[in-house]
Design a protein that fits this description.
alpha/beta, four-stranded mixed beta sheet, two-stranded antiparallel ribbon, about 45% helix
């Protein structure tokens, strides 16, 4: 996608936690994200529970000298960070009018770059967890070294695959703003047996929302982008990540086919109401 360069004054970006990789890679040992996801699936829990619970509070990190980096510095720390900031700005600009038209209050999320480990509003996390959204502080957390794993280990290459990751986490922010996330958490606590199934539905809806963003910006889509998105969605399906070692009852994100279908539905429709099919609460 041909995304415009980010405007530092228009996006919410923070960072810290062990410094940043000097180049495009570094950080996490190969395989850690897959190991973390498989572990979560084996025990039948939402991978977000690996963050240490849902405590409130602002994100905190060890910042080295304690200085606060500028948005410009954070977003240009490496090429992946620049892509993520460009994506964030596009997502903000795409979703704000949708909320305005629906007369629903809109609030931009924060994008937090870290390396190695971080303390979020949802608890402590390491890079092994992969990119995640914390509803407690309305922040998306990304260690950009994940993108090297996405490419080298999972075979999901291309800029659109990386944009899809950010757009998916942004989809969870949409769920937070609309109240869907709170409703799902409540339903999960009332019926723990359905917790995994409900989590899958949330993840598929976030995939659909990611597709809606791309669909609303189809004039920016380049040849090969759709295929890159489908490859990424397939690569992170529960069935593919676990290689048949985990029963479908313990899936928390959906199969490769389900994730591809959800992303495709969003892209082709460019209509967020289409994503209602995945989560209906009440």
């Amino acid at each position: 996608m041909r995304l415009n360069r980010f405007d530092p004054s228009s996006i919410n970006v923070r960072g810290g936690g062990g410094g940043f990789p000097g180049g495009m890679g570094g950080g996490v040992g190969c395989g850690s994200i897959v190991i973390a996801l498989i572990a979560a699936l084996v025990f039948g829990v939402d991978p977000s529970s690996m963050l240490g619970g849902m405590q409130g509070g602002a994100p905190t990190t060890q910042q080295g000298d304690g200085s606060e980096q500028s948005v410009e510095a954070l977003c240009t720390s490496n090429p992946y960070a620049t892509e993520a900031c460009n994506t964030l700005q596009s997502l903000d600009q795409t979703w704000a009018p949708v909320f305005r038209q629906a007369n629903v209050p809109f609030k931009q999320p924060t994008l937090f770059f870290y390396s190695g480990q971080v303390n979020s509003g949802c608890g402590g996390a390491t890079s092994a967890v992969g990119p995640f959204y914390c509803p407690a502080d309305e922040t998306m957390y990304i260690d950009t070294s994940f993108y090297d794993q996405l490419d080298r280990q999972l075979g999901a290459r291309g800029d659109f695959a990386r944009y899809y990751v950010v757009a998916h986490e942004y989809g969870h922010h949409i769920q937070k703003l609309t109240g869907i996330a709170d409703a799902i958490r409540s339903a999960q606590s009332q019926d723990p047996r359905s917790a995994n199934q409900l989590q899958v539905r949330m993840e598929l809806q976030a995939d659909c929302y990611a597709g809606v963003w791309a669909g609303k910006n189809r004039n920016l889509i380049e040849p090969g982008d759709f295929e890159e998105g489908m490859t990424a969605a397939s690569a992170i399906g529960d069935d593919r990540l676990t290689g048949g070692r985990v029963s479908s009852e313990n899936f928390t994100h959906g199969t490769s086919a389900q994730r591809m279908e959800a992303l495709r539905a969003g892209i082709e429709s460019a209509d967020d109401t289409v994503c209602d099919r995945y989560v209906q609460v009440g």
